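We modelled the chain as a single entity of 289 amino acids. Its sequence is:
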Amino acid sequence: MPRLPLLLTACLFAILPAAIVNAGDVTLPGTTRFDLAARPDGGAYRIFVVRPDRPAPAAGYPVLYLLDANAVIGTAADALRARQDLEPAVIVGIGYPTDQPFDIPRRFHDFTPPTAAANLPAQIAPGQRTGGQTALLDFIEQQLKPRIERELPIDRRRQTLFGHSLGGLFALHVLFTRPQAFQSYVAASPSIWWNRESILAEEAARPVISDGPVRLLLTVGARETRNRMRDNTAAMAARLGASRDIEVSFALLDQAGHGASLPLSLLRGLDTVLSPLPRGLLEAPASGQ
């Protein structure tokens, strides 16, 4: 039987049902997940761990703790695999036991300070719980980090926290109250407006970081004008940039709205916290070269 021309064969595969051509679920190489309940009676978190395919440095791997992992763990894993020019690192995604990109009620609780009902946005459902910031940080410090460090060689001097929107607010809260928890922070489109900008009081009262400086990347989309998000973020970057114990970078993301700023900030964050490898150590040339 003669072979079909390559073009015709490709066309046939293109019109076959997806279930035939693409049987089975897609997996992320080097990525595992497990659920871990916060002590003593907290809810469960879905933890995603992206392991490098390269040996650890003598001091261990740098590690990025990533909030809202259900939404962006795939982006993070693929970006790190593609960026062979960056040093290998571990990504630990903190998400929730759901197939949705976000668990909205859990986010409103975990990433916020205690917030009076009068200060909640109108679209939030009555009875929404807030004030879970301390419990979430305790979970990360007391349960999650020790488990990750038992399984992988981690450089505790190279730990980064990434959060977007309310997650960015949480990252700033950690920086201003327990800055020693991480050495780098990425606060993407942080919700500085939340609770009548109560985060500014934490900024004003923050302790001086004696073993710093720590690094902070603040990002925001150019189109994020609602709740003065763009202006508030730029103003905070200017204030903190004058300090000696925080090394501040600021990125205004051209044409980006609130949703687009999440993956764009993640990619910018990887470039900020991971060092480029010396050219002689690259395992392969970049694609297309």
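As a brief sanity check on the tokenised model: The domain at 32-116+128-274 is CATH 3.40.50.1820 (Rossmann fold). The first strand starts at residue 31 and ends at 37.
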